[in-house]
Amino acid sequence: MSAAPKIPERAAIRTSRWALWLPLALFAGFIVLVLIGLLRPASHDVASQFVGKPLPEFSLRAAADNRPGLARANMIGGKPRLLNVFASWCAPCAAEAPQLAQLAAAGVEIDGVAIRDHKPELAAFLARYGNPYTRIGADDVSAVQMAIGSSGAPETFIIDAQGVIRYQHIGEIRTEHVPMLLARLQEAGK
């Protein structure tokens, strides 16, 4: 049998040194990528394909006993308004309730789309967290929610007087979002 070719000793040393440094170089590269991700501010803006487009035709029955249902026709005319997608089972929806009350107190008309909800649970939610809504439509199968490009709850849309979606806010409205929403509503009214 023939013996395996002998690698010169210098080449073997160079190869083993390279092999020693490779894991350290890979780990350092990973750390650099993590640091870049942590230090670069995250963008929370989502480019919706529905912004700038008219609301689709819809008509929803009343979701609450003390508020009328909601249809596209209710969103046309007057001044810009908010369309809030929410549900009684949604914890972030409860968290945004004080901000919706603040917007309503500032004169903002807010219409609600209650997704996959039941009247008793919705009534309890509104009694506990307040009811800033002018109208609340029951979207039992999330058809309107999907048709306007909402993927979850809560989401809030600014609708201008012509029924066109001007802005989509994903997630709960926090205190710091209120001034921005008021400014966007004012822009939508021009």
Number of domains: 2
The strand line-up of the biggest sheet is 5-4-3-6-7
Q: What is the radius of gyration computed over CA atoms, rounded to a whole number of angstroms? A: 27 Å
Strand content: 15-25%
Indicate the CATH topology of the largest domain.
Glutaredoxin
Largest sheet: 5 strands, mixed
SS-derived structural category: alpha/beta
Elements, N to C (H/E): HEEEHHEHEHEEH
First-to-last CA distance: 91 Å
Superfamily (CATH H level) name of the largest domain: Glutaredoxin
Overall morphology: elongated
Count of runs of 4 or more consecutive helical residues: 6
Spans of at least 5 consecutive residues whose pLDDT stays below 50 are none
Instruction: Please state the average pLDDT score.
Output: 88
CATH architectural category of the largest domain = 3-Layer(aba) Sandwich
Specify the helix fraction band. 25-40%
Instruction: Work out the number of β strands.
Output: 7
Describe it.
With 190 residues, the chain is α/β, with parallel strands linked by helices. It contains six helices and seven strands; from the N terminus they run H-E-E-E-H-H-E-H-E-H-E-E-H. It folds into two domains: 7-42; 59-188, 3-Layer(aba) Sandwich (Glutaredoxin), CATH 3.40.30.10. Helices cover 38% and strands 18% of the residues. The strands form two sheets. Strands 5-4-3-6-7 form a five-stranded mixed β-sheet. Strands 1-2 form a two-stranded antiparallel ribbon. The longest helix has 31 residues, at 9-39. The termini are far apart. The mean pLDDT is 88.
